[in-house]
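Q: I'm building a small set of examples for a reading group on sequence design. Run inverse folding on the following structure and report the sequence directly after it, with nothing in between.
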């Protein structure tokens, strides 16, 4: 349980800590100061420490010397932010340059500032920067996809998948699997059709397949991807590896995914061979106000 105390000499009874703690209800306003009446309910988001205008909260998970003030001057203006979003692309051509482990560590660390359901912070990462190992994983993935594609030609298997996945998902699965042979052909010609010869493969994994684990991992990944761009790096999410990895014991072993961990997201990182020079257009999403 976190130890939380409020300095009653500093507290100005503004109520901000109690108001932002709207789910856990750790705080109540006393006559002289706010009081952490339910520290056992704290889920460690740190919003109370973050919002207090007079630094009156002493929370042992968030010592003030480790929680620097937010400086608006260091936050990008909206146009810069949008330009960053619009300039990020998935890259499938990498230069031979290696990525330092220090940079990879920093990127993974940046991922943790993303939101997670109930602040569970449950994502961990495997980084593979051994090119031979990445090539082996690529070959193993192609073999797995080919095996599943062959299996899916069986009408009974098709029927079962149709029933289990539903019509649309099953059809999407056929389309994906139909491409397995062309992946194998490209691999045969010496290409890496899964990881594009990227120097680093990252696998984000969580303990359980809880309903939000994937969301948690994706938010972290997107932070990581945007930060990678600012390091001059490029990334590409690799669903084509993540899906078979989640289902194949062989691939799990090959990737050294620990027992009981679920792969939620896989991506490659490397220095791009080409720079993208233009932003492109995207479909404008429908937006319906107050539908009835
Ligand atoms: C969930 C997910 C899975 C993806 N899997 C792959 C993949 O297996 N191989 C690949 O080359 N790109 C993959 N991508 C990248 C998408 O193709 C790419 O994001 C999309 O074409 C838009 O292009 P952009 O990222 O350059 O804006 C994936 C993206 C997402 C979000």
């Amino acid at each position: 349980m976190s130890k939380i105390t409020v300095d009653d000499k500093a507290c100005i009874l503004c109520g901000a800590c109690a108001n932002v703690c709207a789910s856990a209800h750790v705080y109540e306003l006393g006559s002289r100061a706010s009081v952490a009446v339910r520290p056992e309910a704290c889920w460690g988001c740190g919003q109370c420490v973050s919002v207090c205008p007079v630094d009156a909260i002493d929370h042992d998970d968030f010592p003030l010397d480790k929680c620097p003030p937010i400086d608006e001057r260091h936050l990008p203006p909206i146009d810069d932010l949008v330009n960053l979003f619009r300039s990020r692309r998935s890259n499938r051509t990498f230069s031979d340059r290696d990525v330092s482990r220090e940079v990879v560590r920093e990127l993974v660390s940046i991922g943790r500032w993303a939101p997670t359901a109930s602040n569970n912070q449950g994502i961990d990462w495997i980084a593979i920067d051994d090119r031979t190992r990445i090539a082996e994983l690529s070959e193993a993935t192609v073999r797995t996809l080919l095996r599943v594609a062959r299996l899916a030609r069986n009408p009974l298997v098709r029927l079962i998948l149709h029933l289990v996945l539903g019509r649309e998902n099953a059809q999407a699965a056929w389309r994906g699997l139909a491409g397995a042979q062309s992946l194998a052909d490209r691999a045969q010609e010496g290409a890496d059709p899964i990881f594009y010869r990227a120097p680093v493969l990252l696998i984000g994994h969580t303990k359980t397949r809880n309903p939000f684990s994937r969301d948690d991992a994706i938010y972290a990944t997107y932070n990581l991807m945007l930060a990678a761009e600012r390091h001059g790096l490029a990334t590409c999410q690799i669903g084509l590896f993540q899906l078979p990895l989640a289902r194949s014991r062989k691939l799990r072993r090959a990737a050294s995914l620990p027992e009981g961990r679920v792969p939620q997201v896989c991506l490659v990182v490397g220095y791009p061979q080409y720079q993208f020079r233009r932003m492109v257009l995207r479909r404008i999403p429908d937006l319906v106000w107050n539908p009835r």
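The chain has three domains: 4-66, 78-131+192-270, 133-188.
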